[in-house]
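INFO  loader      accepted 1 record
INFO  loader      residues=209
INFO  predictor   begin
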Amino acid sequence: MNVDRRRGMWLAIAGAVAALVLGIGTTALLAATGAFRGAAPAAWRAPGARCSAPALPGHVVDVTAGDIGPGRVTGGPGWYRMRMMRLVPHPATVPTGVISLRVFNVGALTHEVVVLPLPPGQAAGERVTGPDGKVDEAGSLGESSRNCAAGTGDGIASGAMSWATLTLPPGRYELVCNFPGHYLAGMYAELDVTTPVAGFGDAGRHFQA
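INFO  predictor   done
INFO  writer      dumping tokens
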């Protein structure tokens, strides 16, 4: 086996391990925070978070932003394609109307969440990035990037929360972190907004314990 093939094999293994670790960590966090049960108090703080989110209107989507730490995603473009970072929304499907994003940064780096319409036939993660490592934010419907507060700011620091409330019609949307290189590293996720089924009322409303 030549050097290039060995290097490619180890890069693939490293990417798989990183994705597994991020997935396990995110699942554990959602379980610990009560994402799978119960009703929310007036304000909510994720375990280990440096601030609390207030009571939010509408259907609440909890978004976990994670990475494998500084110095671990600087190995060149090949590393970015390994999904060393991740955005995980829960739930990933909500009824149309008022929707609140509640973002918790469990990573070591600063992140954000920008909401973009997802064009027909395009999957999350397929946007073209520019020389600056960012995607085009034209058509943005809002973002959560203000440390321990709502709306637009300079980014969500490690261990902090941020939130935003939007009104979204039925459709497919993409949540992205648009810090340089983060989209290529895997910080994107699809959020589907659906038309409620008659007779089910607010059964789709999501709260946290």
